[in-house]
Amino acid sequence: MEPIYFRLHPLVVHFPIALFVSAVILETAALILRKESFHQAAIYIYVLAAVMAPLAVYTGLEEVEHEHIKHPVADLHRNLALGVMWTAFASLPLLRVVYKRFAKYFRLAFMIFLLLLAGLVALTAYNGGRLVYEYGIGVEL
Asked: Which of 28, 83, 103, 139 has its CA 20 to 30 A from that of 93?
C-alpha cells in the first residue's frame, strides 16, 4: 500500500479552486449590492486561496513524479498551475500597494484581476479534468 500523500492532490486541489471562485462571486456581489462586508470577505478568501495554492501545486507535482506521468496535457496543466500559484502569490504585495496608494481604484483593479485569475484557474482545472476523464491518469481500475 502506497503512502496517502501520493494521492492527496485530488483532495487538496479543489479547496483553492473553490476559494478563488468564491472570491469572484463575493466581489461581484459586493459591487452589485454595495456591501463592504462582501468585499472584505472576498479579500480574505483570495488571500487564503493564494496561500493554499502552493500546497495544491506541490501535491500535484509529487503525484506526477510518483506515477512517472509523461503527457503533453500534464505538462500544460503543470505550467498553468504554476502560473496560477505564482500570479496569486506575487499579487498579494502588489494588491496591497494598490490598496494603499490608489485606494480609489482598488476595487476595480481587484475585480479585473480576480476575473483574469479565475479564467486561468478554470483553464488549469479543465486540463486537470482532461487528464483524468480523457486519459485516465490517476485512475485505478
From this structure: 28
For residue range 65-115, list pLDDT tens digits in order: 887 888 899 999 999 999 999 999 999 998 888 888 988 889 988 999 999
Q: What angle do CA 107, 102, 90 make, to 5 degrees?
A: 75
- Residue 12 within any structural domain of the chain: yes
Query: In the numeric block, which cell numbers belong to residue 79?
Result: 505550467
Whether 141 maps to a domain, the answer reads no
The total number of structural domains that make up the chain: 1
- Helix, strand, or coil here: 49? helix
66 vs 36: CA distance, rounded Å: 45
Q: How far apart are CA 52 and CA 127, in angstroms?
A: 20
Look up the domain containing 75 and give its range.
4-133
Kindly tell me the burial class for residue 1, based on how many C-beta atoms sit within 10 Å of its own C-beta (0-12, 13-18, 19 or more).
Answer: exposed
In a domain, 139, yes or no: no
Start-end of H helices in 34-139 = 36-67, 72-101, 103-133
Please enumerate in sequence order all residues whose Cβ is within 8 A of that of 130, keeping only pairs 6 or more positions apart, or say none: 73, 77
